[in-house]
Amino acid sequence: MANTTISMNKIRQILKLYQQGRSKQSIAIQLGVSRNTTKRYLSAFQSSGFTFDEVNSLGDRELEDLFGRSNERPPDSRLQALQRCFPRMDKELKRTGVTRKILWEGYQQEFPEGLKYTQFCFYYNQWKAMVNPVMHIDHKAGDKMYIDFVGKKLNIVDLDSGEIQDVEVFVAILGASQLTYVEAVGSQGKEDLISACENALHYFGGVPLAIVPDNLKAAVTKSNRYEPTLNETFADFADHYQTSVLPTRAYRPRDKALVEGAVKIVYSRIYAPLHKNTYHNLKDLNVAIQEHQEHHNNGMLKGRNYSRRQQFEDVERAVLGALPVSRYEFKKLHYATVMKNGHVCLGEDRHYYSVPYRFIGKKVKMLYSRNALEVFYNYERIASHLRERATYGYTTQSTHLATTHRFITEWTPERFLQWAESISQEVKLMIQRILERKQHPEQAYRSCVGILGFAKKVGNDRLSKACGRALSYGVYNYKTVQTILANKMDDYQENPFAEQLPMPEHENIRGEEYYK
Predict the structure, then answer these.
(1) Cα torsion at 79, 80, 86, 89 (round to 10°)?
(2) Which residue from 359, 375, 355 is spatially nearest to 367, judged by alpha carbons?
(3) Considering only CA atoms, which of 17, 52, 55 is closest in space to residue 33?
(4) Number of Cβ atoms within 10 Å of the Cβ of 370
(5) What DSSP string runs through 402-424?
(6) Burial (Cβ within 10 Å: 0-12, 13-18, ≥19) of residue 10
(7) How far apart are CA 80 and CA 77, in angstroms?
(8) Which residues make Cβ contacts (< 8 Å) with residue 5, sequence separation at least 6?
(9) What local confidence, expressed as pLDDT, does residue 226 receive?
(10) What residues are paired with 343 via a beta bridge?
């Protein structure tokens, strides 16, 4: 009774024995409580004004209110003064460099007769637990992988210049087995984060159901308590490995207490021994990290007869998801507007890629990796290409072009000759002469299209005769064939001595000068 309230059943026994006329000393001896405790409860009973039957009919809750709380000692004035300081101290502890020892020394200056440091810490922890309770989380095997970057950086020294370069340290830990992976990387950027995260999955030999990152900019574009916005590249990485991303709440370190604890262990078990040596590149530094990491994973857990590695092999390895056949290919994001020619420009390479012509003028999203490029509009993939790095070059798929544009892209000398041959040998010979006379084949393409188009208007037979007539003149162009057909000169009988015939006179023909 002096320090804590005894059980309600024992209080009933004290009152019952006292009602039977037993002495206080005999009651104390029989029930195994101190004589002073017995006196206090009997004194409280006598001062309450209730009879034994009335008190005995009370429930345990009412009995506690009557005998328990009413007999508690009033709180110490020193403790009351200290508890009033706790909210302010709690805020101060969030500042860098502020410790409980420093706050206690300040408290001692204000209250010289105050509690000592041990009691100060005890009552602070008690207050903290009451105002900010913690929930214990049971981690399921294969459920989550927690990731974070360590606050304190390591460094490497350039072998030639002696320049010291800071490097980030990535930590990943599986929730159930607490198997830990540590790697030094150049930065906290997307590429380094994804690379380290991927290496962690391959180190574990499988994929958990979810990855739990802090609100890193490389993983979370916009934090939100309920629906945070994920970085598209990191979300694509998670999709490649068939897992989910569950960011923690902002400023809630207890959401990832497991990895926070792993960070503290990294400081003592990896950082401490590493500071004894100098490293000149990330590869050597990571080799040393892996050596200490294995020692950490294979060491026995405190108070248990197994290690993190043994626990992982027993309960977690079998339930992890399978790794994909190929590693993730890091993708970058670029936005562009489709030009009038149906192409978009990838700014990094200054190369142009085709998209379906109906998206001309639309703003599209381009995701590109080392070897491939994809174009999206309203979450729909509208084009994909192999990545080319030829500056100011064009990569075009004919199916993306409008019908007229597609026809133009298919213009080749071979195509025109095959088309002409399907009509007659005279037409083929005319097309061949036109292609040979031009300095560049493309200069003759329109003439070829015009001549071959006459087959639909006048028929193959008349076109063949007109081309034969033009060939007999030794003149090879579109206007000559057009003139012959317009004046129906293709009806002339073929003459083996056609080269001796006079040139036909027409208002659109002015002798040899025209044909030059």
Answers:
(1) -80
(2) 375
(3) 17
(4) 9
(5) -HHHHHHHT--HHHHHHHHHTT-
(6) middle
(7) 5
(8) 64, 67, 68, 69, 71, 72
(9) 46
(10) 354
**Helices 460-473 and 441-458, axial angle in degrees (round to 10):** 130
Phi-psi region of 49 (alpha: psi -120 to 50; beta: other; left: phi over 0): left
d(CA 238, CA 240): 5
Burial of 234 (0-12, 13-18, 19+ CB in 10 A): buried
**Distance of CA 227 to CAs 145, 233, 350, Å?**
19, 17, 37
- Residue of 212, 202, 196 lying closest to 144 (CA atoms): 212
Residue 430: CB partners within 8 Å, gap ≥ 6?
420, 451, 467, 470, 471, 476, 481
Q: What is the pLDDT of residue 4?
A: 53
The secondary structure of 335-380 as a DSSP string is EEEPPTTSEEEETTTTEEEE--GGGTT-EEEEEE-SSEEEEEETTE
Task: Quote the CA–CA distance of 258 and 175 in Å, as a whole number.
Answer: 7
Q: What type of residue is 105?
A: E
The backbone torsions φ and ψ at residue 187, rounded to the nearest 5 degrees and listed phi first, read -160, 180
Residues of the chain with pLDDT under 50: 1-3, 70-71, 134-136, 226-227, 251, 255, 493-516
Return the bridge partners of 171, or none.
Answer: 148, 182
Q: Rounded to an integer, what distance in angstroms lies between the CA atom of residue 169 and that of residue 175?
A: 19
Question: pLDDT for 166-178, tens place per residue?
Answer: 888 898 888 878 8
Show the tokens assigned to 200: 């962690």
SS3 of 471, please?
Answer: helix
Tell me phi and psi for residue 374, to 5 degrees. Answer: -125, 145
Query: Among candidates 58, 33, 32, which has minimal Cα distance to 45?
Result: 58
Residue 427 three-state SS: helix
pLDDT of residue 494: 47
Which neighbouring-strand residues pair with 381?
A: 376
User: Is the alpha carbon torsion for 340, 346, 350, 355 positive or negative?
Assistant: negative
| pLDDT tens per residue, range 11-58 | 888 888 888 888 888 888 887 888 888 888 888 777 777 777 777 777
First to last CA, the chain: 127
Question: According to the model, what pLDDT value does residue 337 have?
Answer: 92
> Residue 17 and residue 250: Cα distance in Å, rounded?
60
Assign 274 to helix, strand or coil: helix
CB-based contacts of 69: which residues, under 8 Å, 6+ apart?
5
| pLDDT reported for residue 485 | 84
Distance, CA of 88 to CA of 85 (rounded, Å): 6
Mode of pairing for the β-strands spanning 351-354 and 394-395: parallel
Length of the chain: 516
